[in-house]
User: Fold these one by one.
Assistant:
Number 1:
Amino acid sequence: MSGHNKWSTIKRKKGAIDAKRSKAFSRIIKEMTVAVKEGGSDPDSNPRLRLAIANAKGVNMPKENITRAISKAADKDSAALMEVTYEGYAPGGVAFFIEATTDNIQRTVSNVRSIFNKYNGSLGTNGSLSFIFDRKGVFTIPQGTLVEDEFIMEVIDAGAEDVVLEDGFFTVTTAMEDFGSMMKKLEQMKIEPESAELQRIPKTYTKLDKETSQKILRIADIFEDDDDVTNVFHNLELTDELMQDMGD
């Protein structure tokens, strides 16, 4: 399995765990809030909101929670949220790319810097890691009754760069610019993905010993536990042994 497929698989497995926690809901509510502020509360005319709603359904968010979040976001007095990114290095030279949504940038950057410092890492300048990560569209789709060969042909025609079937789920990867067209293609096929998001996929990976790798994964978890952080990406090579440990 190629590196980015391993990454997508572990993100999905971790997503299944996250779905059991309120953190998953809070992340999606923030995404819906930003989407409504940007493009209004009608999902038919707001593709970003439509995507956020689809992801909410993917983690079984109750319909009333979705409706309430959209209504609250449409209130002109609701808090303004900003999307920010941070880049830095953890021990062993592992690159980290952090995405956050916040109503207080000072608090967020202070928390992120504190985590890097506490675990002997360093916060870098924005853009310093752009050569390491590619932004890709990643779709997770339950196989259900889909016929593998037929489905793969359809999504390749729509711009898929890679399609992997594992554990009953298709992981479809596209270039960032093909993300919207793939969403439209899936809508035409009446397929609702379990998740659809832009991820930062490493171009190169850093391989470390098991003990150090486990420390890096612990740092990733600490970042993800921060209330403002929405996504954490890194370029640690996920060996089969690490994948097994994370899947347990």
Number 2:
Amino acid sequence: MTARLAAHPNIEIVRERVDVLPASGATIVATGPLTAIKLAESIGAATGADALAFFDAIAPIVHRDSIDMDVAWMAARWDKGGKDYVNCPMTKDQYLAFRQGLLDGDKTEFKEWEKDTPYFEGCMPIEVMAERGEDTLRYGPMKPVGLDDPKTGRWPYAVVQLRQDNALGTLWNMVGFQTKLKHGEQVRLFRTIPGLEKAEFARLGGLHRNTFINSPQLLDSTLRLRSAPHIRFAGQITGCEGYVESAAIGLLAGRFAAAELSGEALAPPPLTTALGALLGHITGGAEAASYQPMNVNFGLFPPIEGRARKADRKRLYTERAKAALEAWLGSVPPHAIVGRGTRRSLVEG
């Protein structure tokens, strides 16, 4: 790919450090996951300090239809603000066993370049909280106060809460459960939580250094920065997780930019496709207040209409996506594919 880009007559590759976002000219910023500090400061100034994160504190995401609602129930603390959370109750014995599992679980070590990055309270791993004392979790993310279990009429000894993570309501975030536990250990341990025995995870927890923006708040449907539309963001800095996902968002950013420079209109791919579902999540489908990086998964797609057996859903999602993508590709302007006559610079930040 490097050789093909270097040989392309319409592409100039400039290898230099960029410290400041350009004030004008069509620009795509694709500097994640470890953006240099000066450029990060410039991005922070353009987006707002609260909209730029330097540390991923990723809590697991559960598919809503895999939660056992015969055990869990919907409620907000003290019944205020509507039934905003799924609540999974624990007895004392269940809580103590769960805490011990956190302490004993196999954990991923920090990479060398992460080791000196200090924790802050907003992204404290749940196993670190468990180490602080037997009741630390019960006074933190697993606090049962103000949550009456409708089956007992009393507060549980502890509770695990899940909060809606996308506009469709198909994905729910385990509140405060960012962790360095290895993925297999997470699945095993989190399925001991009452109501999550058969949980299917769209994403598992993690904690690592990263730089990403609050895209649902900042970007329009074609990845332009609302406050400076000449700038687009692409790749991991938008809050997508994974190489394939980052490349896909980069591809879309390039096509949107090429179409715009050619005076063409390019509609985003349908939400029923993998490209459209991921783009839609990044640019507004996710909850901005709790936004964290996400891989593409079927939980981002609009649900299949009508009733379908669980075993058939992935096939139905895939067939629908293929048809929708084929139709969308037929509508893509030629300039959005090859960018004829447009000279670009690829700048490494």
Number 3:
Amino acid sequence: MKPTFNAYIDGFNLYKGSLERRPESKWLDIVGLCKSLEPDANLDTVYYFTAPVKSRFVGDRASDRQATYLRVLEHSGVKIVRGKFRKDARWHRLASMELQEFVQPILAAHLGLTQLAINGSWKNAKPDVPMTKVVILGEKGSDVNLASYLLRDIYRGNIDRALIITGDSDLTVPVLFTKAEGITAHVVVPGDGQNSASLKSAASSLTRLDIELLRSNQFPDSYLTPAGGNIQKPSSWVKSPSRK
């Protein structure tokens, strides 16, 4: 008899680690991916932890694309657990006085933002560093929600294995507790650049997400819901024929 597993997906970590720079892979069939990652076990429940994104600028359609994708995931059987997404304006110290690292896109010199003016600002701020007000976007609650659902299922004795897709070292302790309870904790890290040393020491096993699995687990461009509805893949996620 095959063991049973649940999957716990850190949505933003997966997006930032593997999907953000691969728009043609964003229409990802999460259930199919999880089954591919645990082929010798029976999948029970997939939890996808995320937060509704907010618009970054006028005309930004990111929230619409995310909402469309979450609808498809829910129709495919994934349980969406929503946290909060915050958009705050905060003062932060500058990291560089070089014009090309001060503002993007670079403004014309006649608009007043010259290297001389920047240098003057740094001089006036000494011994401190000049500050600027920036917009900070971030999700809140997803890591706590993931840890809570994982530990709840473990202590209830609902599963034999746990598949955790994340590269967030903040989840090291719940992963360690999972293994300590005799549950196989398989961590899959989405991004090559994510430091996973602590997760590796805590998990039963740790692997990097194979990009080919993203490509082989995609929903059809036109997704037919069980009720007969039709959900279209966002046009900006469709791979251009000219791209390799």
